[in-house]
Specification:
Shape: globular
Subcellular location: Cell membrane
Number of strands: 0
Radius of gyration: 23 Å
Order of helices and strands: HHHHHHHHHHHHHHHHHHH
Number of helices: 19
Largest sheet: none
Organism: Saccharopolyspora antimicrobica
Keywords: Acyltransferase, Cell membrane, Membrane, Transferase, Transmembrane, Transmembrane helix
Number of domains: 2
Distance between the termini: 16 Å
Helix content: 55-70%
GO cellular component, one term: plasma membrane
Protein name: Alginate O-acetyltransferase complex protein AlgI
Amino acid sequence: MSFASPLFLWYFLPAVLAAVLIAPRTGRNAVVAVASLLFYASGAGGTTLLLLACIVVNYFAGLRLEPVEWGFERNRRRWVLIGTVSFNLAILAVWKYAGFATEQLAVLSSWFGGDFPVLELALPIGISFYTFHHISYVVDIYRGERPALRNPVSFITYIAMFPQLVAGPIVRYREIADQLPQERTHRLDDIAAGFPRFAWGLTKKVVIADTLAPMVDACFATPDEDMTFAIAWLGAIGYAMQLYFDFSGYSDMAIGLGRMLGFRLPENFARPYSSVTVTEFWRRWHMSLSRWFRDYVYIPLGGNRGGPARTYRNLAIIFVLTGFWHGAAWTYLVWGLFHGLLLVVERRFGWAHAPSDLRARIARRALTMLLVVIGWVFFRSPDLTSAFVMLGHMLVPDFAGLTDIVAAAVTNQRLVFLLLALVVVFLPANAGTGPFLESVRTRRAKALRIGVLTLGLGYSGLLVATGSFSPFLYYQF
């Protein structure tokens, strides 16, 4: 059930909001928990049992992990933590990576005449996200940063909350623990505050990302022998825009939905394409994932303590994990290593900080955008061969045009929306001003915001009604 589907927009969401409004003041979590499990089961089917099993294990583990004073119990807590984190990682490894691992073993086996069986498991929706939520929960309790949740309904609400269950933001337990026990008092105010953010995200997803999708798909589906300079660049730039408006649109919708339910979820994007360095890009792109890896992997590994060599090693580990977190494929690993190498180079040569000179900032911003777009080619390509073929054509201009299939996909409407997307992401803006059209103070700016949201929401509704939408790109992770 996509946020951009008629079933969600016209039936599920109104029913949930009505239930939230009429439920007792202390009944918010029960409504959210039940609605979230129904939402997940509608798309996940039998793999919902896997989510429920993980919820049960981590709930009872959390009760055993609160800090105590005496030595034996401290050792017991450590082993409970190790066992619980290992359980969560094992679940993720089996369902997400076992198929990839057996595929590689099958290839090696075929070289020696063997026939190694390939394991095929359906990837549970959102497993990468709810696994990280579970790990955050038990680690934060073990560190004494927040107490365990003794009410199982509150725990289900945190883990399975439907706005962020499938594709984030990744909400660390410490960020939401204080919100879970609170009674819901300002229900209509929360709905009024969250709906514009939801509408803005829906517009970004349906109007821009989904409009660009057929053109991008046609470019990346072009056979290697038919690839040209024009197709390669059109596909790379188009995908950079599609992915940003799709994923940031989802995050806006999730944050808006969370607010309508009475929760304040963390921001996930801060105009990443305005970054002047790759280091800055990762402070602005998918921020909840970056914060999670920083708090639960990078800092425990030693962070930037212990000298440059150890820092570079830690950065490499983080981005290998970031790549494989996104998917079990060599393309994701190379994408992660590419960004890890860029961060190491920036740190090694003192380029991680943005220059103060305006012309230098403009040049560095253009270079950063170029490097990010190159990285997206690995991220989107079906395999490494196709990625290198496309990159080769991007680097070597030719006079060939578009194939008939790509030309048919490049309509005037899609070109207009591609240009609109480029204008929006390249507008000069300060990350501290908040999401686009969210922080407005003047009367003219408020009028612009209302006008854009009204037109965008109306057009989005028409597109949804005609079935002109596609699943969110991050659903596959």
